[in-house]
Amino acid sequence: MKKFAVFGNPIEQSLSPTIHQMFAEQCEEVISYEKILAPVDGFVEKASSFLAQPEVVGCNVTMPFKLDAFNMANIDDQAAQDAQAANTLMKCPDGSIKGFNTDGVGLVNDLLNNNVQLENKRVLLIGAGGAARGVISPLLEASVAQLIITNRTLEKAQQISAAVSNSNLDVVALDDIAAIKPHIIINSTAASLHQELPCHMSEALLDECEVVYDMVYKNSPTVFMQEAHKYGVKKRLDGLGMLVEQAAAAFSIWTGKQPKTNAIVNKVRELINNQ
Ligand code: NDP
């Protein structure tokens, strides 16, 4: 049996074991996949001893350990390199550990599954934490016309922009975002977890907006999605599809098999709605 786990703190809420068991069933793999709570300053030790077990193939890593995971692994993956964060670790035959970041491909695949065209669009990305860092390169590679980052703490957005250094990437202060007239707005902040808006929502900001995307997922629309609805934005997506797609990309790295995700997104949605 192939063994996997997800490490985080907190971790109890994680849907990853459920999602990966669904992938395994679909792809005829027999796996075990557990949730492991690591102490905030004890991830590397805990993950290393897990990965040393002979049956273990790899693990996922969530908040707040993606930077630690990046630092403990060999990184060939460009997305992880650009994000300076890893959410997927894999053990190589010689025992060394490789790190990947599948958050960005997860977001882009979910947008494509929902018929959101990225090419030539002006995209506003709100937030400058680990999730934002993970999606910047994949969004730029999807040929967006312009990617503009904003964040409550603007310096963090400026640091990301300086590190990535791409002529299609800009930084704008939260007070100035209405002038951008974005076609797509992606909320990569944790604001929705606290029932807060990440920015001031207005007619001026949203009058050309076709899609809003909130990386947070809940059993009802987030405040960000509700507010976009008020201003007439037709397509409003939450991060559940991204969660499943980033997991599918990790499963594919580990097993070489690409699970089909549509039905699984629906099943996980049902689980959340019944919580
Ligand atoms: P980080 O802690 O690294 O960053 C948090 C970000 O949210 C920062 O930009 C922070 O701003 C901002 N923020 C937090 N609270 C507020 C608020 N009340 N108002 C405005 N901005 C706020 O977290 P991550 O980037 O790793 O994760 C962010 C969110 O994305 C989480 O809610 C997580 O659940 C979700 N996520 C979803 C995924 C999915 O698959 N659907 C994958 C990864 C993450 P500041 O810098 O000013 O503090």
TrEMBL record:
GO terms for cellular component: cytosol. It catalyses: shikimate + NADP(+) = 3-dehydroshikimate + NADPH + H(+). Keywords: Amino-acid biosynthesis, Aromatic amino acid biosynthesis, NADP, Oxidoreductase. Its EC number is 1.1.1.25. Residues 239-267 form the SDH C-terminal domain. It comes from the Bacteria. This is Shikimate dehydrogenase (NADP(+)). The active site is at residue 66. Homodimer. Pfam families: SDH_C, Shikimate_DH, Shikimate_dh_N. PANTHER family: BIFUNCTIONAL 3-DEHYDROQUINATE DEHYDRATASE_SHIKIMATE DEHYDROGENASE, CHLOROPLASTIC, SHIKIMATE DEHYDROGENASE. Belongs to the shikimate dehydrogenase family. One of its GO terms (biological process) is chorismate biosynthetic process.
